[in-house]
Amino acid sequence: MKRFFFFFGVFAFLLLVVGGSFAFWKLSPFIFARSASAPLIAVLGEPVRLPAPSVEGTVSLEETLAKRRSVRAFENRAVPLGHLGQLLWAAQGITLPEKGYRTAPSAMSTYPLRVYAVVESVADLPPGFYAYLPENHSLIPVFSGPAKERAMTAIRQPWILSAPVVLIITGRYEQLEATLGDTARFCVDAETGHASQNVYLQATALGLGTVSAGGINGEALKEAFSIPAEETPLYAMPVGYPKQE
Ligand SMILES: Cc1cc2nc3c(=O)[nH]c(=O)nc-3n(C[C@H](O)[C@H](O)[C@H](O)COP(=O)(O)O)c2cc1C
Q1: Is the same domain home to 26 and 63?
Q2: What is the mean pLDDT of residues 132-151?
Q3: Does the C-beta of 201 come closer than 6 Å to ligand 1?
């Protein structure tokens, strides 16, 4: 009888371990989100699938370059969800899925950046703070509610207040230090510049405006939205329809 209880106990324990692991594996995408080697972030709800990005446009690259300008005054007008998706794709979208390569170049394909969106007025998207997941071109809700007011405590630049959406680009220095040593900081900063320029050009081509704001309080921003410790906020990019002066 003792033996029976012993084997039954072992069987029940194994069932619990295997079943529990399977349940965690199945549910984990809804609890945490991981992008490439990025740290985990707590997830608030279901991911929001973004419309597929367009890979053709009507404005030439030369015209876009000639028109690109930093914009700091925005109309009180919502940005379509497809435009937000297009901007995020321009920043970090995957363009060669079999290798995971993205729209912006990356030192040794390490991809140490993450892009977030502080949403105030985007069509069909509740206000909040979202993380972009390049792997399935979706947004992961991280904070729900009036996120821009929170962001303002960290980004003390008044023109950002009038933008319907603000992109935040973070970088992970330590992740690259293991492979790139002393050049890690330069590589992360340079890559942020590539991603940011893509956003500038994509915004211009869509008739939107933006500015790359480096004068932000990264620590306050991390605290406001529980951004993982490994990430350093590097740029805030308010986006919206330029206000005609
Ligand atoms: C590294 C870097 C940091 C910047 N930081 C800010 C900033 O904090 N706030 C801002 O309004 N513009 C910022 N800018 C934008 C510059 O002010 C802008 O590019 C410059 O005035 C030239 O104007 P243009 O972009 O229209 O050509 C920054 C640009 C760079 C490259």
Answers
A1: no
A2: 93
A3: no
